[in-house]
Amino acid sequence: RIKIKTLAGLRIVTTLNFYQSRIESIEDDAFKNLKKLNNLDLRYNKLTTITNKTFSGLSNIYKLYLDYNLISTIEPLAFAELVNLQNLFLTRNLIKTIPSDLFKNITWINLIYLSFNMISVIRTETFTDLFYLREIYLDNNLIEKFEPSSFRNLSLLQNIDFSNNKIREIKTFYFKGRKFFFNLKKKSKLITYCILKAFLRY
Strands, DSSP E only, in 75-144? Predict the structure, then answer.
């Protein structure tokens, strides 16, 4: 467990690496005094829950690695204080639901990895106002449907990966006034391979 006292005296640290450290939990506000931290690696641990206070105080962080944990619960405003976050990695967890307010306030984010989770639905409002988002990876989940309007306001978005999901229905995809279609594998009863590349250059 990471406790506040564990990180005492690390106020000027810019990078922390807890890679494969068998961490099961993080005390609320444990990082609150690490104002200069911009890179946090928590990959290959045993974290199950991210609360609204797990990352409080990390206003300067821009890369957060949470891949290969056991995360199943993320509270709605868990990343609200990460106002400068640019890259978020959540691959290989047990996430079933993305709270609609999860990405509120982190408008600078440009890369999100949510691959290999258990997500089944993408809510319309989940990615709203992420104006700088360029790439999002949702491959290898259990997604059956999503609303095309879920990505409506993402003017810089270039790549969405929905490969290896359970999407049954394909709708024409409208993005920034242009029309896009999905690339599909042929001869498949379920649409298991589905990648949209929305490159905006002519």
Answer: 87-89, 111-113, 121-122, 135-137
Whole-number Å distance between alpha carbons of 192 and 202 = 29
Q: What is the DSSP letter of 192?
A: -
- Residue 108: alpha-carbon gap to chain centroid: 13
- For residue 158, the model assigns a pLDDT of 84
CA atoms within 13 A of residue 194's CA, in its CB half-sphere: 26
Query: In the numeric block, which tokens belong to residue 130?
Result: 């992420």
Query: How many CA atoms, within 13 angstroms, populate the side-chain half-sphere of residue 111?
Result: 9
> What's 2's DSSP letter?
B
Q: Give 106-120 pLDDT, tens digit per residue.
A: 989 999 999 999 999
Q: Which helix (H) or strand (E) holds 146?
A: strand 145-146
- Averaged over 166-194, what is the pLDDT? 51
* Structure tokens, 75: 């509270």
